[in-house]
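Reminder to self: tokens first, then the designed residues, so the page reads top to bottom the way the pipeline ran.
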């Protein structure tokens, strides 16, 4: 697992005691909570429509989402301080289908200390951050797919072991 984290440039983060608590509206106005994804590995990405590297990264994110969406995996993005109509237009242009939440006032981004975009966090199945990526990646690469498949598999093993103890 460490090798896959290293190949993808993921900074390992010791899991916090508590899961990440985020409640935001999606681009259609529906309230979404990160706790809705408990039991899944969550790919949590902070971005904007005007960010050049975000625009480059998004198609590979969509490919990863399509490959893993029917497994214990969820792709959730948080757009920083742009309107729902801007995000909808962007999603239509790039043919994106994963979840986009709106951090309209920037409070969530600020609470995460986001200083550069894109920034991606990887959450375990309990909702705790286990990794951080600064900058874009080729998320549809063999290494990225292997990373998330291993996380889904190993996290399931870890959860089973914890439940047994």
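Designed residues (165 positions):
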């Amino acid at each position: 697992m460490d090798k896959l984290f290293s190949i993808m440039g993921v900074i390992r983060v010791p899991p916090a005691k508590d899961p990440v608590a985020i409640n935001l509206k999606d681009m259609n106005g529906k309230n979404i909570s990160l706790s809705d994804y408990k039991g899944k590995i969550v790919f949590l990405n902070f971005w904007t429509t005007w960010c050049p590297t975000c625009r480059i990264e998004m198609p590979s994110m969509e490919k990863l989402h399509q490959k893993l969406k029917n497994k214990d995996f969820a792709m959730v993005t948080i757009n920083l301080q742009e309107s729902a109509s801007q995000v909808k237009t962007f999603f239509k242009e790039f043919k994106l289908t994963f979840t986009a939440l709106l951090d309209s006032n920037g409070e969530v981004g600020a609470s995460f200390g986001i200083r550069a975009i894109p920034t991606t966090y990887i959450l375990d199945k309990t909702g705790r951050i286990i990794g951080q990526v600064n900058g874009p990646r080729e998320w549809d690469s063999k290494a990225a797919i292997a990373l998330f498949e291993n996380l889904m598999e190993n996290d399931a093993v870890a959860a089973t072991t914890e439940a047994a103890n």
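The CA atoms of residues 107 and 113 lie 10 Å apart.
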